[in-house]
Amino acid sequence: MVDNLKKESLFLRIEKVLAEISLLLLVLVIFIDVVLGAIFRLDINDYYAQHLVIWVTLLGATLVTHKGEHLSISLAEKIVPEKYHGLLKSITAYISIVVTTIVALSSVGLIFFGTDRPDDVIVPIEVFTFILPVAFLVMALRFFLYNSKGLWARLALSTAFIAGILFTLNDIFFIAQESVIRIYPDNLEVFEQLDSLIFTVTNLTSSLLDWLAVPLVIVLILSALIGTPIFVVLSGLAIVLFKSSGNSFLLDIPQSMYTILSGDVIPAVPLFTLVGFIMSEGKAGERLVKLFRALLGWLPGGLAIVIVLICAFFTTITGATGVTILALGGLLYSIMKQRQYKSDFSLGFLTSAGSNGLLFPPSLPVMMYGVAALVPIPDLFIAGLVPGFLMVGALGVMGVLHARKQKISKIPFEPKALLRPLLDALPELLLPLLIIIGIFSPLGLNIVGTAAIAVVYVLVVELVIHRDIPVKNLFRVMAKGLPIIGGILIIIAAAKGLNNFMVYEMIPQSFALWVEEVIKSKYLFLILLNIALLITGCFMDIFSAIFVVAPLVIELGAIFHIDPVHLGIIFLANLQLGYLTPPVGLNLFMASYRFQEPLPRIYKSVLPFFFVMLAVLLIITYVPVISADLGLFSPKLLNPVFTSK
């Protein structure tokens, strides 16, 4: 039954088409805005692009739910006997249904009275916001249908919907009350009855949560370890904490999601992710390998240097290290084996190289940190250059040393043999330059406009110049990228709700005061920060960590007078290494999946690289001058339009 449900239905096909059209419209609206601005000095209101992201995110998230590929830790599946895996899935499905049902019902209030639209746009705000309750309801139904094998399972999971409804009774009655006022403004009797119900439910839920809040938080955290999607855990924590703090209504949760997804910089996330997917679907990786082998193959360990550069290139463009491993891992592993690199070295090297590049422009984590921490994004990109090259260089040196030790043969340098690969790969090589010019030049572009130009550019390269991707397959490529886009952005949206709770309760400030009393040394603080962020990087993806953990770190950094830009580089470099930290660093699982190797072997192969990169991380942390403004760009040259609101 479940397998049949997962087959393509008419509803699923419509869902995919809507998601693909939304993504295409997002590209077109921003690109047309850039063109009109450059030629005619006209401006399309950013409202449309920012709100199309909401559709792209939510439809992408429903597609991820259909495929069962939401980002999760799933640590328990590795240690719990297989016969209990069904029980674990039922538990995670139950929690997922409860949480997504709550968000779906509370999102209805957003349609009624949650947001306003500018006067100069004609599309009603409801066109964009109604997707929130619809999408979360679809996800709740899919969690139910895909995990309800048998009558008893269906009956048990059905109660999850009831629990979700009970948790949002306040919101349901409030929406009904507001509707009555709008339709029957003189019907005070119904209004007072609903008001009484709201008061009663508020008192009841407050009493229950006085002793249920802590157990529910513990259950949610433990559920993350058994495979509950990270976005569900973050949303669930926000819901419980908001309710337990005396907040009667849960409208703040979808309101937070709406706010972050309609932000100024957020449209760049799906666009740059799409750029990476278009390139990985073509033969850009193969062309770059041929070029760099011809250029650097004569060096000892030349192939290793080539691989580090290519992985950094793709990770920088996609902003997701797992995509690099999945897209290029097989090709690069095969090449390393042909060149007689040892198997364990190749596994560890590729897994480690897959996380490099997160500090270079136009890295999405850097942009997200700028948004969350209110730090100028160009400053972060400049400050990340030297630390980023240190990370790349450290792996390159390890590759050279291994090649010399194993006496791996070199490729003779032939200038004539370089011309053809250079011409073939030249369009891809120009892409980073195009992005840097767009970000840092005074041309009037912002990061979102640059991202749209990058999408159009790679489309021309892959569809017209190289013809790697037939035009008829364009929507198929977009469909492959949408689950990654939706999976990332839904986590960012969920993390924003938890972030808002922390801001409302002034948790960062309170925690900062406590640390100030306990820790007196700046260097002791930095040591503890390194340890805490490595652990965070193990158990939390970088995007949710930015919005959940960064507010705490920013307050603490201010106490010890750490430059906010340097603190951002420390934060991101730690989380980058967290992807490789055993036992649950995300890239370890990605590598195990991609190379079809057991996790213990991946752990063993990665450890030497982990310790070398840890040494680089310590240099980045304790030698702040390398994360300073290098003077490469005068502030006057930085694009004044490019901000991190």
Using only CA atoms, what is the Rg? 25 Å
Query: What sequence of helices (H) and strands (E) makes up the elements?
Result: HHHHHHHHHHHHHHHHHHHHHHHHHHHHHH
SS class: mainly alpha
Question: How many DSSP-defined strands?
Answer: 0
Question: What's this model, at a glance?
Answer:
The protein has 645 residues and is mainly α. It is 76% helix and 0% strand.
Explain the overall architecture.
The protein has helices spanning 2-6, 10-39, 46-67, 76-79, 85-113, 125-129, 131-145, 151-167, 169-183, 188-225, 230-244, 252-261, 268-281, 284-296, 302-318, 321-338, 343-353, 364-373, 377-383, 385-406, 415-440, 447-465, 474-504, 507-518, 522-539, 542-548, 550-559, 564-578, 586-595, 599-622. The protein is 76% helix and 0% strand. The longest helix is centred in the first third of the chain and has 38 residues, at 188-225. It is built from 30 helices and no strands. Helix 14 crosses helix 21. Mean pLDDT is 81; it is low at 630-645. The radius of gyration is 25 Å and the shape is globular. The chain has 645 residues and is mainly α. The chain has two domains: 71-261, no CATH class; 268-627, no CATH class.
